[in-house]
Design goal:
single chain, alpha/beta, Rossmann fold, Argininosuccinate synthetase, chain A, domain 2, 5-stranded parallel β-sheet, 5-stranded antiparallel β-sheet, 12 helices, 14 strands
C-alpha cells in the first residue's frame, strides 16, 4: 500500500464512492483525484464537487462526455446491430470503456500511479473497468475496494460513514429499492423484488417510459436520415449523436417503447435478472436494420449477422479495447459506406414499426426485377429451373441412397 502515491477514483458523489474515497485516504495514505462523468444519467454531477472538496480533495475532474459517448461508443456499436443473448442492448456495458479511458487519461495528466472503481466483486463492471485500464495502461495499479475491505453490508457502510463524518442523504421515503444505473442509452434496475425471476416489476419502478397500455392511442411517425450507418437527422432536422439519443429517448418513452425484463448470463458465471429501459436504442436498432435491408449486399448482411453475437459478447464481457473487437469494428465500419438514406417509423404502444425506407444513391432494391407484374425481360424465370436442380443435386444423390 505504501507504494501508491496518487489514485484516480471513478466518483459518483454517492454514499458508496464517498466511503471509498475516505477509505483510500486512510488505508493507502495516498492522494485521491476524483473523476465524475456526465454520460447522460439525467442527474446533476456538479454536487459531486462539493462532496469531494468536503473530503479534502484538491484535484477534481467533472467532465461532460455525452457527445463522446454517443459518437465514439454507442453509434459504432449500433452499426453492428449488437444485442447480447438476443435481447440486451448493452447499455451498461458500452459505458464502461469510456469511463476507463478517461480515468487513464487523468492518471497520466496528474501523475497518478493507481486507479479505483466502486464495482462489486460479483458483477461484470469490475471486469469491464479493469480490462479497460490494463488495455490502455498495462502497468497501472488497480484498487477494487469491494474485493479488499470488510464493509460488506449496508449497516457497516453506514457505520463507517457516521464514524468518519460522511454525509448520508436521508431519502427513506423516496429511495428506490432497486440498484439503478443510467446513461444516454438506458436505465437499468436490479435487486429488490427483481431477485425473484417470477415476480413482475412494479409499475412505479419504471422511470423513462409509460406503460404500453397508457401510451397514446394515436401513432407517432418519424423519419430517420442515415449517413454511413449513423443517424444524422430526425424529421429532416440535423442533430448531433447525443441529441439524437436524447430526442429518441423522450419520443420512445412517451410511446411505451424500450422496456425489457431478462435473465442474463454474467461473465463471472452467475445468472442475473435485470430490467431495462432503452427507448432510443430500441428505435435505433429497428431503423438501422431497415436502412441496411435496402443498402447492404445479401452476403455482407448475413456475415454481419453471423459475427454480431461474437461482437456483442466482446462488449458485454469488457473487451472493447481488445484487438479482435477493433478488427471487427473496422470491417463493420467498412460495410456502412453505402448505408445512406431514410427510414420512416411508426411508434405505437410499445411497438416500433417500419413503414418505409429509401436510399436514392445506394439502394439495391430494384422494383423492375422484384415486381410481380411484367418485368419486360429483366429476369428470366426459366433460369430458376437449372439453379434449383444444381442446388438439389446433393439432395437427390442422398435421396437415391436412402431408397
Amino acid at each position: 500500500m505504501s507504494d501508491i502515491n496518487k489514485v484516480v477514483l471513478a466518483y459518483s458523489g454517492g454514499l458508496d464512492t464517498s466511503i471509498i474515497l475516505k477509505w483510500l485516504q486512510d488505508e493507502y495514505q495516498c492522494e485521491v483525484v476524483t473523476f465524475t462523468a456526465d454520460i447522460g444519467q439525467g442527474e446533476e454531477v456538479e454536487p459531486a464537487r462539493a462532496k469531494a472538496e468536503a473530503l479534502g480533495i484538491k484535484e477534481i475532474y467533472i467532465d461532460d462526455l455525452r457527445e463522446e459517448y454517443a459518437q465514439d461508443f454507442v453509434f459504432p456499436m449500433f452499426r453492428a446491430n449488437a444485442i447480447y443473448e438476443g435481447e440486451y442492448l448493452l447499455g451498461t456495458s458500452i459505458a464502461r470503456p469510456l469511463i476507463s479511458k478517461r480515468q487513464i487519461e487523468i492518471a497520466n495528466e496528474t501523475g497518478a500511479d493507481a486507479v479505483s472503481h466502486g464495482a462489486t466483486g460479483k458483477g461484470n463492471d469490475q471486469i469491464r473497468f479493469e480490462l479497460g485500464y490494463y488495455g490502455l495502461k498495462p502497468d497501472v495499479h488497480v484498487i477494487a475496494p469491494w474485493r479488499e475491505w470488510d464493509l460488506n453490508s449496508r449497516e457497516k457502510l453506514l457505520a463507517y460513514a457516521e464514524q468518519h463524518g460522511i454525509a448520508v442523504e436521508n431519502k427513506k421515503g423516496n429511495k428506490s429499492p432497486y440498484s439503478m444505473d443510467a446513461n444516454l442509452l438506458h436505465i437499468s434496475y436490479e435487486g429488490g423484488i427483481l431477485e425473484d425471476p417470477w415476480a413482475e416489476p412494479e409499475e412505479d419502478m419504471w422511470r423513462w417510459s409509460v406503460s404500453p397500455e397508457q401510451a397514446p392511442d394515436v401513432a407517432t411517425y418519424i423519419e430517420l436520415t442515415y449517413l454511413h450507418g449513423d443517424i444524422i437527422a430526425i424529421d429532416n432536422l440535423a442533430m448531433s449523436p447525443a441529441r439524437v439519443m436524447e430526442y429518441l429517448n423522450k419520443l420512445g418513452g412517451d410511446n411505451g417503447i424500450g422496456r425489457l425484463d431478462i435473465v442474463e448470463n454474467r461473465y463471472v458465471g452467475m445468472k442475473s435478472r435485470g430490467c431495462y429501459e432503452t427507448p432510443a436504442g430500441t428505435i435505433m436498432l429497428k431503423g438501422h436494420r431497415a436502412i441496411e435491408s435496402i443498402t447492404l449486399d445479401r452476403e455482407v448482411a448475413h456475415l454481419k449477422d453471423e459475427l454480431m453475437p461474437r461482437y456483442a459478447k466482446l462488449i458485454y464481457n469488457g473487451y472493447w479495447w481488445a484487438p479482435e473487437r477493433q478488427m471487427m469494428q473496422e470491417m463493420i465500419d467498412a460495410s456502412q459506406i453505402t448505408v445512406n438514406g431514410k427510414v420512416r417509423l411508426k411508434l405505437y404502444k410499445g411497438n416500433v414499426i417500419v413503414v418505409g425506407r429509401e436510399s436514392n444513391s445506394d439502394s439495391l432494391f430494384d422494383a423492375n426485377i422484384a415486381t410481380f407484374e411484367d418485368d419486360e425481360g429483366a429476369y428470366n424465370q426459366a433460369d430458376a429451373e437449372g439453379f434449383i436442380k444444381l442446388n438439389a443435386l446433393r439432395l437427390r444423390i442422398a435421396g437415391k441412397k436412402k431408397q
